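Ligand: FE2/S2 (inorganic) cluster. Inputs:
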Amino acid sequence: MQAFKELAEIVRKEKVAEDLYRLTVKAPDIAEFSRPGQFVMVRTVEGMDPLLRRPFSVHQVSGGDMLQIFFKVIGKGTKALAGMEPGQQVDILGPFGQSFTMAEDSLHILVGGGIGTAPLLFLAKHLLKKNEVYSLRVLLGARTGNEIARVAEDFTNLGLTVDIITEDGSLGRQGLVTDLMTELQQDKQIMVYGCGPYPMLRAVAGICRENSWACQVSLETMMACGLAACLGCAVMRADMQGYVYVCKDGPVLDMNEVAWL
Amino acid sequence: MAVESPKMNVDIGSLRLSNPVMTASGTFGYGEEFSSLVNLHRLGAIIVKGISLLPRQGNPPQRIAETACGLLNAIGLANVGLERFFSEKLPFFDAIETPLIVNILGDTVEEYQELAARLNDEERIAAIEVNISCPNVKQGGVAFGTDPEMAHKVTHAVCQHFNRPVIVKLSPNVTDISLIARAVEDGGADAVSLINTILAMAIDIESCRPKLANVFGGLSGPAIKPVALRMVWQTAESVSIPVIGIGGISSPEDAIEFLLAGAKAVQVGTANFINPRAAEEIIQGIESYMVKKGFASIEEMIGRARKS
Ligand SMILES: Cc1cc2nc3c(=O)[nH]c(=O)nc-3n(C[C@H](O)[C@H](O)[C@H](O)COP(=O)(O)OP(=O)(O)OC[C@H]3O[C@@H](n4cnc5c(N)ncnc54)[C@H](O)[C@@H]3O)c2cc1C
Ligand SMILES: Cc1cc2nc3c(=O)[nH]c(=O)nc-3n(C[C@H](O)[C@H](O)[C@H](O)COP(=O)(O)O)c2cc1C
Ligand code: FES
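Predicted complex:
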């Protein structure tokens, strides 16, 4: 595995919605080697509190040397990161983990929940290199509209059809993203790519099993290192005989590898 | 006038290290994980994740939680076991000249003994570090490291079966660590390393449950440094074998404090997660400090703070 440590200059900071930010940093090595689904470990402060780096999916790479992360402020680390400004540098390690496997001759269903949509844009761009727009479908769910409005636009700009559903009905239909899945036409082999909170992914995997669709999910756990060294990111294996490690075996895993406890 | 560069080398028993900075067990994987980020040849020694005779799955998640300047872990000593260590992890070290130290753990004295005997046959392994913070299954689960008699026994058993240096790694979860240190010195240990993690916990006030599935875990990182330093000081006072300092070391300054307190070498643990190059930068920083202060060798610094 080839990983890099870069002091990356922030070139752009966008406040996408309340507590939702997109940072563009200049990290040529990490950007060059990143594949959709992989993640980076970001040091959010120079000091010792918060102590650990924070994992973020690679949201996009552009121009050969730019890397984007898309994140939600939920605690100390993300708050510190949101306070950084263009011109400042962030210490980033990566890229880490397994990327999505691009299925062939399939209908590609990208299912994202809330901030979990972060890795899907990069994936969509890669899929479009070998697939026509009509063989991709994007299903986005969120608690409320402004969490996904902006990302939905990015997908639309790629020429993709985006179905939106929100819990409060403020954007698109009202309901859960899994509601959109039950309406999918099964004329072709289907590959589902799921990103979002654990309960959503479990429900997505459930629907895929029932319909015999293939499904890859991107899991999130607490991580101390991202380097396969601390063994803190364990998730029970499907056979219940041991663990997969999300930073090394994942974060993208086939739904059949996980016990879904 | 040309200034000679300071002598960074130290000896731990018959083990010669090019510098006193090693990576701590469980925080550096099996070395390979860090190879694209770290120049492994710069390190004084590499200590790999604790190995048991048979593979161990480890504890259920959550296994880790962050605390103020600290990391709580209850990994449960998950490891690939001795056979897979030999077949999958050891070959990587064929191309690495840095001394390899294998950390071992067991449920019984017999298990430690067998591990020592098997590792003795692998010339590539420069030393063993014995983790005695584990529960002794035959003695009602009391940790080997909290009872001087058991600590002595397990040390003796390992030393009988391993003909190169044996380092015994002490648990801080005792009333008087120097008592245990003396017991393992008596048992034949060539050095002691300390501290292992401090028993601790954290509670999630949203779910009203402990953050770790195991309830208790081991605290590491900068938060524990002052405690570790105190214990290293006390231990250096009570044994004549080398003391290796561990606990929250993240910067050259931290490492220097341990050397001045009486440690002959140090290990960098949790800091590897935050900065994979921490150990390399610490080596560099110690050297600069020595030049600045006029220390010609590490030896000159050891225990300097103790001298009145
Ligand atoms: C592979 C991977 C990719 C990720 N990608 C993204 C991304 O693209 N965008 C994004 O916004 N977030 C992403 N995350 C989640 C992100 O890492 C966390 O939101 C972040 O670490 C929170 O840090 P903090 O200091 O702000 O919060 P903290 O203060 O650390 O935590 C706030 C609260 O959330 C809980 N918590 C934090 N992280 C997790 C977790 N992973 N699982 C369960 N509970 C948790 C804590 O226990 C605490 O109660 C990803 C996580 C992983 C593992
Ligand atoms: C995730 C993790 C795993 C560890 N695993 C082991 C182990 O297998 N064997 C061992 O002797 N010590 C283990 N330790 C303890 C460290 O080697 C070290 O003694 C301790 O973390 C204190 O040093 P630090 O504050 O620099 O991390 C582990 C520590 C951490 C954080
Ligand atoms: S995060 Fe440390 S092993 Fe996965």
